[in-house]
Design brief:
339 residues; alpha/beta; Rossmann fold
Length: 339
């Protein structure tokens, strides 16, 4: 947004970007959202992080009729324009992603014995539901062990030992970054080498794969929709040059290897498109109308992945491609899944 403002803003207006930290705590999220809406009188609440904090403000934002836009969580419930017309997600939803892994597993290893670790909240259960729906009738015979953890748990070592003991040869790892790194590391320590599917929220090379030990992650499968900044194939051309120029000038303290920076850059571009389309009619109603009328591609999305919404389609990004970790970077393979 600083870059946009430096270049003259949007339709001649500058963006005022107010941020408060909710510490990933639902009660704190409620407090901060109220402050933004009632004191700061913001036009839009943009890209707040996490399923639990957003769940806590979901009804409030819709009661207040303030755009709750492009949430940084893939929970499926953010795409419900009938009941929550002021809330819209951004990234591919967790159920769709879970289905992609199930589809791939059925295509490549139909007799797999699957163990699952998931965070005990809406986010974890959403992925789990998508995966089970994707396996269909085979879910009951293929899934042999499910274990949960709480966000407050210091470690998931005991869960990993339990999963290995189940005799599973396939592991679906539904964890946030800190726990994902722990799971990858622990699997290596106990000598468990299953076919390993890792949810896309935890694939940053900088914040997950490196602390887990790069060698420990070799062969892990995930799905992607944005370009990984550590992947040499994206480190060329205008899109990359523009990204690195922005990085050096406006985000110099950040880690260029961290894909979350690409995420923020791309989500911000999505909001800029909405504001441009809104023109001089900057009502909250018109913001939601424009957000529900997108058909664009953005420079740091993987080729074949687009942003498309409609009055009845509040899922902006729905396409993903499978990728495999090489020990250095994520390598895409196969077809682009999704609609």
């Amino acid at each position: 947004f600083n870059k946009i403002n430096a270049e003259g803003g949007i339709n001649g207006r500058k963006i005022t970007f107010v941020t408060y930290d909710d510490g990933y705590s639902p009660p704190k999220a409620v407090e901060q959202a109220r402050k933004l809406v009632e004191q700061d009188e913001v036009l839009v609440l943009f890209n707040p992080l996490g399923t639990p904090p957003n769940s806590a403000i979901h009804r409030y934002m819709n009661q207040k009729k303030v755009p709750h836009l492009f949430l940084a969580t893939g929970a499926t419930k953010w795409g419900d324009p009938k009941n929550f017309p002021w809330t819209m997600g951004w990234q591919p939803n967790y159920q769709s992603e879970g289905k992609i892994y199930a589809q791939h597993l059925l295509e490549t290893k139909p007799n797999a014995k699957v163990a699952i670790l998931y965070q005990n909240d809406d986010y974890g259960k959403d992925y789990l539901k998508g995966f089970k729906d994707g396996l269909g009738a085979k879910a009951a015979s293929m899934i042999i062990k499910e274990v949960t953890y709480e966000v407050t748990d210091p470690t998931i070592d005991s869960q990993m030992v339990t999963l290995k003991a189940s005799g599973a040869d396939t592991f679906f790892n539904i964890t946030t970054p800190k726990f994902a790194a722990q799971a990858i590391k622990k699997a290596a320590e106990i000598g468990w080498k299953p076919t390993h599917y890792l949810n896309s929220v935890s694939i940053s090379v900088g914040t997950v794969m490196t602390p887990a030990g790069l060698d420990n992650g070799v062969g892990i499968l995930s799905a992607g929709y944005i370009k990984d900044p550590t992947d040499a194939q994206w480190q060329k051309g205008k899109e990359w040059d523009d990204y690195t120029a922005w990085f050096k000038k406006y985000n110099a303290a950040g880690d260029i290897k961290d894909v979350n920076n690409v995420y923020g850059y791309t989500a911000a571009q999505g909001l800029v498109h909405v504001l441009k389309q809104a023109g001089d009619n900057l009502t909250r109603e018109n913001i939601m109308k424009q957000a529900a009328n997108l058909d664009i591609t953005l420079p740091m999305l993987i080729p074949g992945v687009n942003v498309k919404t409609g009055p009845d389609d509040f899922f902006p990004i729905e396409r993903m491609q499978l990728q495999r970790f090489t020990g250095k970077t994520w390598e895409l393979f196969g077809k682009v899944y999704g609609r």
